[in-house]
Predict the 3D structure of the following.
Amino acid sequence: MSDKPISTPSNFIRHIIDEDLKNGKNGGQVLTRFPPEPNGYLHIGHAKSICLNFGVARDYQGQCNLRFDDTNPHKENLEFVEAIQADVKWLGFDWGGKPFYASDYFEQLYGFAMELIDKGLAYICDLNAEQTREYRGTLTEPGKNSPYRERSIEENRDLFQRMRAGEFADGAKVLRARIDMASPNINLRDPTLYRIRHGVIHHQTGSEWCLYPMYDFTHPISDALEGVTHSLCTLEFEDHRPLYDWVLDNISIPCHPQQIEFSRLNLQYTVMSKRKLTRLVEEGIVEGWDDPRMPTIAGLRRRGYTPAAIREFCDRIGVTKSDNSIEMAILESCIREDLDAHAPRAMAVLHPLKVVLSNYPEDKTEMLSAANHPKDEAMGSRQLPFSRELYIDRADFMEVAPNKKFKRLVLGGEVRLRNAYVIRCDEVIKDNAGEPIELRCSVDMDTLGANPEGRKVKGVIHWVSAQHGIRAELRLYDRLFTVPHPDSDKSVTDFVELLNPQALRTLTDCILEPGLAKAAEGSRYQFEREGYFCFDAKASRADLPVFNLVVGLKDSWAKIEQQD
Ligand code: ATP
Ligand code: MG
């Protein structure tokens, strides 16, 4: 699939950067970062942040760091670290060298915490979690000072060192910033900066630390240490910005990145919270993080999405400060447009119905040429074997046309086989239940290629030679949830009740044109009149290739009829 040319959709963040560059701020540099926590796989919401951060860096000749926000070791692991790197690369972005880890800065962070203690701006607090909550107050009531708030600098230093040395149990003590328990912004009511976590092996630092810094302390300092100029994050961090600035204003660090918030991507009919996605994986509700039903990058990749389509989607939805929820149709139209232009055409029969051409020699096979793409000659053509026995789709035959719109095959009627001849149905053979199991047809050998004079055959259907076709499994996907907003749906107590049981339907007896036996991992096709499909190497067996439905065709009928 081709790459989309570099584009620069403007947005309010780019306007801020333009202004900064005009004013000579940051020495004319632009440095952004993408800071995932390695506690799950990346999803399409992360793609928005990735395209924004890496896209800004690319367009302003800057750099974007990939930084793992790895301060919560019990939920993080190396599998996630590796998957995140693979997904960012697959999306087409490069962080130039090695990724960064917040854990790279643990020693420096500890030093800055000591500096706050020395300035009387941080203290060790012994309140337990419940007491801390009580003392914090509410949105309408101010908090109360902790009884430990007035500890001396010496005592705080000593306790902090002993916390690091492992003298205290989890939860026995925390380090808190000393800001303002009456602040209208709850984030400023002496937030916790460090907590104790014994017995976890950190994927980067092993068991070196039992003291872990909080996100709100780690993030601004990591940004500043890397020389980030614009720290772009989602709106829920807007209320944390005063704390971000407070940390940097109160430690000896020469750099002060600007935090700018934008709205998260919400996509209809799916969920984006890592907690919920983790549950679907851990409870085996989906096959794994790369299940093609998942909104993860790995799932979308396995489903058959292209990086270009995902980047195009991120461009189309734009970057603003207003919360909204995006229709799945927008994502689907991005991949459909990409595949319409770039996916070779092929024929696949999903529900096979046998056709015997009674006037076609039994031992004959001819090779018919078929264009790989109706509009792109450069994609070449292929040879399709044609023989006496074929499969067509059950849905393409009815004994009697149900209405005038039915342009497919009926008893006594004619239809064109795509890239081949016109056939007429002479006889229907049915099973005991009255279901057609075989059609006896005659083929008009004068009808190959352009329609001969005066011959009007409206319908065109696809087919595969019975002798040459290969059997395959096709997995048809639909939305993961039955409602557009599973996150806020109040009709159920547990969101899994809203899962769509039809999100995956498996067809195991499909017949594909023989060339598809050579499909490579991730190769995508338009199965004519059916949809876009992607070969799934992971799910395939030697005797049963598996293809995933990427996205359906919008208006298959109209298109096919025009082509004939
Ligand atoms: P969760 O809240 O589900 O745990 P998270 O947002 O905390 O997920 P991170 O790994 O911390 O996940 O996210 C890394 C970056 O991606 C952050 O800067 C975050 O703001 C951004 N991001 C996460 N989800 C979205 C989303 N839906 N839309 C846009 N950006 C997102
Ligand atoms: Mg986060």
In short: DSSP finds 13 helices and 27 strands in the chain. Residues 44-59 form the longest helix (16 residues).
